[in-house]
Queue: 2 jobs
Job 1
Amino acid sequence: MTFAHALKCRECGREYPLNPIFSCEFCFGPLEVAYDYDGIRGAMTRDSIERGPTSLWRYAELLPCDPKYKVDLGTGYTPLIKADRLAKAVGLDTLWIKNDTVNPTWSFKDRVVSVAIAKAREFGFEAMACASTGNLANSVAAHAAGAGMDCYVFIPDDLEQGKVVGSAIYNPTLVMVRGSYDDVNRLCTELSMARPWAFVNINVRPYYAEGSRTLGYEIAEQLGWRSPDHIVAPMASGSMYTKIWKGLQEFHKVGLIDTPHTRMSGAQAEGCSPITTAFEKHTLNFVPQKPNTIARSLAIGNPADGYYALKQMQETNGGAEMVNDDEIVEGIKLLAETEGIFAETAGGVTIGCLKKMVASGFIRRDEETVAVISGGGLKTIEAVADKVVEPLRVPANASAFDEALRERQGAPVGARA
Amino acid sequence: MATKHVRLTYSQQLIKEPLVYNMGHQFAVVTDVRMADVGPTAGFVILELTGEEDEIERALQWARDKGVRVDEATLGDIVEG
């Protein structure tokens, strides 16, 4: 049972049946799922949610798929951690970390893929497909394996070994495409039109994107059924950033929280910053870029939801910031050293941008802020491998250890204070 | 016959040139503007092109050679992180 009743064009409002289609045939605007919120309001209460599973399926009434088709690897309901030490380091009174590094394939992509694969099964697709440089590929391959479905994963042929293995272990048909990113984009768009596959971010994109709303639901529920003053989230296509806000608005619409007044801010890397650059130029029309950043999970030069992300910044009085590669590494280290959370490069982007926005006064000290950390650090270990502390190398005796420690600390070794 | 949906992005230097008109006259393609936002500093046009596949590609290459950025209309980049 789902309360989704149509696909609706985000540009012209024209409605379509719930089919595997993604764009309006009149204006080519993207399609988005429309729901019967009155029905949801009657079927869902705070109490019913709290009694639900500790996964994103606790919000099943708000998802556009029949839960009987779900492939549940345990995605969602990830910790919201009060980050006092990081708050102090960046200059905030209250900061929370939404820790999505603990999902089954260690990134928020498990949220979107959970919904995409359930809907694909409902439609009767027998194969899943995607084009990805890492997180999405890992998640699609894992979920397809869990469902026993065929899986086709397209990756650029210059990808690091770690990322290839992270998908290959689930035994999909892994295709390394020779050529530029634009070539991979072109090939996959062409294949998606001609093959009977559920291409997660093409023909089932309207459903896939809805999975990110659960981040907004969880943040509100975990804060005690209320929205925070400010949320900072990373932006690649801009989809997750816009869907978190949609989630908060929907929770209000179905009577679960008061009107949200959250300011929504987005984070990008300098080497791929079409949305932030447009925000700084006060325009809604971004100019696509050729990505060149260590934050490859955010390297979308032509973001499908860039325009909507920019509109949302206006609507919520939020903003956008960007950081360079060194600041990304500093952000990863700061989060790890203050809160014990090892994030991938996108997390470094979020923390780096958060720090800059607080320093500039854009985020006030007294704004209760949530930072979304979307993926785990072991995925991008090469970004920090040579930037972490050198181990002490000692022979196996205590005095050698004391000597090495004294040298490292530059202070006498004695009883621990 | 093929159909292609593209987003053209171009800068100030090309604003005064009738790009879509010229494309339709120099190549055997039907140009159908579905959305546009052309201002004093930049132009964005969402276009449906119909014609032989090779001819559409030639028309788009002609636009690229003039400095127009050509992208797929709806989806943006398919390759995700």
Job 2
Amino acid sequence: MKINKITIILFLTMLFGACTDLEETLYDKVSSADYGKTASEIETIVGRAYASLRGYSDEICNAFPTGEFVLFLSETTSDEACIPTRGADWYDEGRYQDAQFHTWTPSNLLVLSAWRYCYGGINKINLIIDQVEKSELSEEEQMVVKAELRGVRAYFYYMLLDLYGNVPITTKASDENVTNSTRADVYAFVENELLDIIDLLPEEKIYGRFTQGVAYTLMARLYLNSEVFIGEPRWQDCINACDKVQGYTLENNFFTSFLTDNEGSNEIIWSIPYDSKAGTVGNFFASLAFHYKQKQAFSATNNYTDCVNGISAQPGLYSSYEDEDVRKQGYLVGDQISLATGSVILMDDGSPLSYTEEIEDYTDAKQNEGIRPKKYEVKEGETWERDHDFVLMRYAEIILMKAECYIRLGSPGLARPLVAQIRDRANVDTPAEVDLEFLDDELMREFAFEGHRRTDNIRMGDWFEPWWNKEATPEYRSLFPIPQYEMDLNSNLTQNPGYN
Amino acid sequence: MKNKNQSKYIFIIQVVTMVIGLVVLSVVGFAQNKPVKGTIVDKDNISLPGATIIQKGTTNGVISDAEGNFEIACPMGSTLVISYIGFKDQEVEVNSTDLGTIKLMEDFVTLSEAVVVGVGYGTMRKSDLTGAIESVDSEELKKGVISSTEQLLQGKVAGLTVIQGTGDPAIGASLRLRGGTSLSASNGPLIVVDGIPGVDFNTVHPSEIVSIDVLKDASASAIYGSRGANGVIIVTTNRASKGKNMQYQGYVAVGRASKHVDVLSANQWRAWVRENEVTEAIDYGGNTDWQKELEQTAITHSHVFTFNSGTESSGYRASVNYLNNQGVIKNTKLERLGASLSAYQFGLNDKLKLEAGINANFDKWNPFDGRIFERMLNLSPTIPVYNPDSSFTRIGGTKYDNPVEIHTNRFAQNTRHRLLGYGKAELEIIEGLKAVANLSYEYNSMQARLYKPSYAVMEGQADKGFGQRTLGDYTTMQIETYLTYDKQLNDNHKINLLGGYSYLDNTYEGFRAMRRGFDTDLFLYNNLGAGQDYRAGDVYSYKGQAKLISFFARANYNFKGRYMATATLRRDGSSRFGANNKWGWFPSASLAWRISDEPFMQATSNWLDNLKLRAGYGVTGNQDGIGEYKSLSLLGAGSDTYYDAATQTWKQSYGPIQNPNPNLKWETTAQVNIGLDFSLFSRLTGTIEVYQKDTYDLLYTYRVSSADYAFPTILANVGSLKNQGVELTLSGNIVSTKDFTWDANLTLAKNMQVIEKLSDETFQTEDVPSGSLHGIDGMSGQFSQLIAEGYPVGTFWGPLCTGIDSTGKFILADEGVSQDIGNVQPKLSYGFGTGFTWKNFDMELAMYGMYGQKVLNATAMILNNPKRLPTLNVTDSFLESGITDKVTYSSYWVEDASFLRLQSLTLGYTLQATEIGLSKIRFYVTGENLFVLTNYSGTDPEVSIEGLDNPGFDWFNAYPRPRTFSFGLNVSF
């Protein structure tokens, strides 16, 4: 019976000496307490802040700065772009019609998308700053690293300031039920942040990074729109900031900044780098613009990604270019020729695929109506995710910002040579005298589909006038509403005036 | 023999009683007696060891041996009374010294009460149960072709819904007991195979299954604690046992797609073009039925070979099986090779029993590109499959690719290896006190291989060849130790105690590698290194682990066999739970009262054989909804790369990956169950169950303010829902004579679910739209269902359509306001089976069905779009419908999918073939899926209701369900 006793003891040990350790063992992830100590580790965490500029997609909505729906929000509400309803396509609960008619509500998905894009970035950066502060870096080193992070965060806040005005300011990793700040406070926050970090930022050009050049460009934008934002014009401050942006030039060829490999452009001040092979997502604006069968025009073997026939130029944009203007080549117009057959591509209903500027009925447009933007290079074999970097700031903007300020300050003579630089490159003449109205149109021609237009429309005042498929716009609609989705999740938020 | 466990049990009782009897008998002598011999068998000619044979009116008796043979000395002309538990007593007149084979007829009622039922960490007789447990035994399981264990359970257990949503041989059915208890987690019951919880059903070959016990209510399943909320299915398989036999089971089956989508033929298309004078329609001159082009007649064959040899002290059993199912869609063959080995040995004066075994199986199949199903309905029937030069025809356009090309120009093979090894030690410490240790190791490894050649229209061309291999492994290691104590105090009191500990470690890991840009297509997926197009995300790997640690106890008390009580308690701790909720308690209690045994029931005892009332309450959990590491603050390296200008390269970034929730815990379900078991007239047994399940702490991914949180959602325990239902099981032995028997059984279940709460102070959600219609023309961003308080999961929410007006527009009631337009959950599910035997012939029929559930026929919604013709094909019914309206979601597409399916019909013949050295041969033919009665207009009304994304959607889930005819042969040696 000796064996029996041993066995019993064995059983009892198994029963009562049992393991009760429930710690989770990590294998393919790290605890936030175990990573982000050294400078090289911190570098990879800072990289995540830049990655957040590309936005994200989840089951609630796409939040991509390159198209759906962050860019769509500023483009389709402006006078240069539209997304016509084509039968059942692109109706999408009327979200684009509301953008076109300036009748959006707080529930509009475009309104939500841009908000989530900005706060998605801000909150990640807040967490990253938290990690930096817990690292082994010295306080001085931390200040330098944090300067760049705060710069990118200021960019997101600038967007919020421009789009929504009275938004919550949060700078901590965990902040619950935040409340709105006034637009003036947000303005001051952005300005102070930029002034605070400017000397800590890299002086030299570093592609894709938040350098002094980027900070001064952002500051120039802030001052250019200062009258809109806080009712106080700061034209000279804008000029001063522009003058600080050094080391960039206008590329001889307008399209150099829009090549697939555009990182070599000396005109680009800041961009969001993309490379589909590096796994970047969201960069598929062209596919949202081109017709379903457009691929036949780019590849004889249909070796081009799918396209879904959406965003188009608003009638008036294309015809605002003179014929010899090189920038006019940045559009798809008229008959599209199949590379395989050499003849015009036929749409499903048998009619030719020929883009027209005229869109007869915005709410029931034909598939081929609307001219399509093609500013960025198109290549056979392209995938849905494109490889060109998305330009956020380029030197032409500095030139035209200065020109506008000179006109505003009553010195159009100083503005003309600046405007001429832009016009010369585009192969068009510059009038003897440039006024605001001319400059307004020039801004549209130069920066079409780069996401500037809504801000320009508001600053120039066109925003409030009727235009194609839009009545006069009330003053309060120069700001978008706080998204209803966010209001529902945080009862501390108050809605912008006019939207209640 | 009903089943092995039961026979063992009975055998022991018999031996004990007979030994006592024989001692008494052996002292009495008889004169003029002649030795008379015979063999006792059941109606299936299976020998019955341990049957009692007594000369009538005397105490002279013997018991039959292991082969059912007996020899008794008795005078000619006397009468022998043969009795056996579970069978009716039979009298035989002695008119010869060899009485030959004596067939006993089952005593229906006693038998059903004597069934031994798995209750988790032990077994009990059905008569002693206090909880709601339903059993399906091997006889019901093994009449004809068994293609899968899940299918076998269809319609057999009241309250267990088994939905086979596709005809794809590689995809199994989903199980759901008494409605779902979870929004986001799995609603499948816990599967326990031979005492090992959490085993994959498919690890065990269906022919190896002896019995399946379904623990339906919480008082029964609470012993499994945080995994018991969706019920527990206990599977007992054939392990080594006493006796010696060999068996072969095999069948060959022929299957064809049972139904197609009625799209226009080329001639119908041409007639439409002519009649409507459509000028721009392009006729490609072909005459193609795209569905038929992809289909084939599927031949399936299956073979199982088993042998077993066992004695009192040791034994072994081995089994091998092979299955080859071609699939009714070309290139979708499934092959499965499996084997199992088990052995036992007794030691320490028979006080210690050791068991060990291993189950292994290997699956190999060819996964296909699901996009063929949409294309085969899209393409014009006038497009020929091939060009004159025998290349594939290609018509440009989105979703307009040649499905035969997609299907052909693709190389894919998946393999899955499953291994289950176990060891069990049972030690009798003192009489009645047993210690049990159960160790198991389960390994499941899946490898997927895919190559899209450079000439393939889907991605292959664009990628210049795309190769990919994926490996995913998981291992589960488990140790369970427990003590049981059985004690009969005197005639009146019986107790059974259980206490134990369990440790479970689940580890999963895997990787994927892919590459594009191949110079040659010859390597397929076998040389990924040859691809030259490098991309981020081409390689990744992962690993995770979860631990579950439990303590459990159970006490049973039985007074006079009339009053029974059971109480269980389990304490579960899981590594997945948040730091603030690491451990949970799961108690239960239940009572039963056998009314029919009360003295005051004497008057009814001639017709009421059994009447038992049961009541129970228990708390169980579901922890499937919490993934690993969800409660922690973590950094991850993932797809978010960043551009480093200094090196001009892309680098990996690190960042936070989730909003951590340290409060995460299991979902809790409290269930009350009241049941009534009855048997009448020795013919009819039945059970009625009534239950209510209240689930709270429901897990759901809540949206949180983007200004407050870094990530838009957080997983939290917030909501609650309720299931209530009634179940009826009836089983009748209608005719029972020596040559002819007829039995029938019926299951009926009704479950009602309602979501009671979705929000609390911290986390709120409005009604959540679900069932996205994104992907249907004009439906992007639109939803078909609503998750809302006061409604069940899977409620279709949309405008009510009252018809189509004369201009072909949908008439929407209430100005098109969205409303409740039906639900994916059945109002009633039922099953019906009946069997006959006549002499050596037998026939078995099984039907099941559901009533009142709705299915969104998204396929029809897509195909009935007036913009499709002439380019894209439409259904015949579209032309009749006269629809001219744009695609609109409404009740028009939400169809009643009630159905009744004749699942199988088997006709068999059993031959005693002892003369040629075989003990038994059985031939049978089985027809499966012979018909479906339904008003549903799509191909099949049985549609998966799993998940929240698109439950109850028929959206090109068009792998056709086959109608199959098979011929089978079972031989016992």
